[in-house]
Amino acid sequence: MGQNEMWADTVIERIRGKMTWVSEKNRNKIPYRTDENGDYDDRSDPAKEWNVDDGINWWTNGFWGGIMWLLYQDTGDEKYMRIARLSEERMERCFHDYYGLHHDVGFMFMPTAAADYRLTGNPDSRRQALHATSLLAGRFNPVGRFLRAWNDEDYLYGRKSVPEGEEPGSGNAPLPESNKGWAIIDSMFNISLLYWASEETKDPRFRQMAMMHADTVMENFVRSDGSVCHIVEFDPETGRMVRSLGGQGYGEGSAWTRGQGWAVYGFMISYRHTGEQRYLETARRAARYCLQHIPENGIIPVDFAQPEEPAYEDSCGACVIAGGLLELSKCVPAPEGRIYEEAAVKILRTIADTRADFGQDCDAIVQNCSAAYHVPEHHITMSYADYFFIEAVYKLKGTGVFMW
Ligand code: GLY
User: Fold this and answer.
1) pTM (2 decimals)?
2) What dihedral do alpha carbons 149, 153, 155, 158 form, nearest 10°?
3) Which residue lies with its CA nearest to atom 2 of ligand 1?
4) Is 69 within a domain?
5) Which pLDDT belongs to residue 167?
6) pLDDT digits (tens, 9 = 90+) for 323-335
C-alpha cells in the first residue's frame, strides 16, 4: 500500500468514528450548517418558516444523504442506508413545492435518489431521480445551449433589495430580472443527472443536452489561463453572451476557488460519461491554474485572486478541488497524474491537520468554509464540505462509488 493510501486509511478511521455518533444524533434532520454550539440545523423541518428555496428545496439537501451512502458502502452498516432513505422520503416534498426547485437538482438527487438506485436498485429512487432529471432538462435554453440557473423570484437568502455596493448573484443579494439568461459553473455537477438518465433509459436526449451545456461552458467560462468565471449572462432570446459576473467570488474576472473546483471536477464528470478528450483537456487547464495558485501552506482562499487581507478561507472549495484533481490524476499519464495526486493530498492533509474537527464539540468535520466572498459570515461549516472531504478521502484510498 502506498503512503497516500495509508494516510487515507488513518483518516477514514477518524471519519468512521465521528460519523457513528453524528449520524445517530442527526438521523431525523437534513443538515446544512452548525450553530454556535456545534449542533446541526435541519433544512427539512416543516415547522420552520423557510423561504421557498431554503427549506426542503435548499440546494445542499442531497449531501447529508450522500455522506450516509458513502459510509454505507464503506462500512456495510445498514443504519446509514436507513438514515439516507429518511432524506430521500422527505425530499419527495420538493416536487410538491415545485416553485422552489432550481438548477441544483443534480446536487440534490444524485447523492440521494440516484445513489440509492445505483447501490440497491430501489425502484422508488429511480422514479425520483428521473423526475428531477426531467425538471432539469426543462431548464434548457435551446438557442443559447445552456441550462438556466436559478429562477426569477427566488431571492437568495430571502432578501428582496440589492444592498448598496453588492453585486447581484454574489450570494447575498437578490437576482435581477436579467437572470433568465444566466448560467453558472456549478451546473457542471448538475448535468451528471442528465448523463445518468441517458445511461439508465437509453434515451440520448439528456446526454445531448448535458454535452451542449458543457460545450457552452467550455467556450464561454474558461479563460485562456485556465481560470473560470462563476456566472455568464447570455441573451435568452439570441443566446449571445452578454457579460460575465464574479458571483460568489471576489469580482468580475477573478477566480472563485470553489468554482475552479466545480470546473476541474465537473469537466472530469463529463469526460467520464462521454470519453470526449476536449473535456479532459478543459479539466486539465483548470487544474493547472489551481496548481499555480495553491498557497504554500495549502490553505485555500475563497478566491485565488482575492486581496491578501482579509484572509478569507474556503475549506469546502479546497475539498472540491482535491476531488477533481484526484479524478484527473487517474486519467492522464502516470508522471502527470502524480503531480495532481500530490497537490490533492497536500490540500487534504492541510484540512485534516488544521481545519478538521474529529472530536465531540461540533457535528461537522470541516471548518473554515465560506459560502461566498461578499457575505457577512465567513469560516462556518457546510454539510457539502464534509461530503466532499469524505468523498475525496475514499477516492484517495481507491474505494467508494462514483456518485456523479
Ligand atoms: N453551488 C453553489 C455553491 O457552490 O455555493
Assistant:
1) 0.95
2) -150
3) 186
4) yes
5) 60
6) 999 999 999 999 9
Displacement of CA 274 from its chain's centroid (Å): 20
Q: Residue 103 is part of which domain span?
A: 3-397
Number of independent structural domains in the chain? 1
pLDDT tens profile 243-271: 999 999 999 999 999 999 999 999 999 99
pLDDT for residue 373 is more than 50? yes
Give distance in angstroms: CA of 372 to centre of ligand 1.
8
Closest ligand 1 atom to Cα of 258: 4
- 50-90 tens-digit pLDDT: 877 889 999 999 999 999 999 999 999 999 999 999 999 99
Q: How far is the CA of 83 from the centre of ligand 1 (A)?
A: 24
End-to-end, the C-alpha distance of the chain in Å comes to: 27
Between CA 386 and CA 356 the distance in angstroms is 9
Average pLDDT over residues 111-117: 98
In angstroms and rounded to an integer, the radius of gyration of the C-alpha atoms of the chain is: 19
Which is nearest to 254 in space by CA: 389, 97, 372? 372
Grid cell locating 291: 496548481
Residue 314 and residue 370 in contact, taking contact as beta carbons nearer than 8 Å: yes
- Give me the torsion for CA of 295, 296, 298, 302, rounded to 10°: -20
The verdict on residue 403 lying in a domain is no
Is residue 252 within a helix (H) or strand (E), and if so which, with residue range? Answer: none
402 within a domain of the structure (yes/no): no
Cβ neighbour number for residue 178 with a 10 Å cutoff: 13
Q: Judge whether 404 lies within some domain.
A: no
Give one DSSP letter per residue of 207-236, joined into a string. Answer: HHHHHHHHHHHHHHTB-TTS-B-SEEEE-T
We report the CATH number of the domain holding residue 55 as: 1.50.10.10
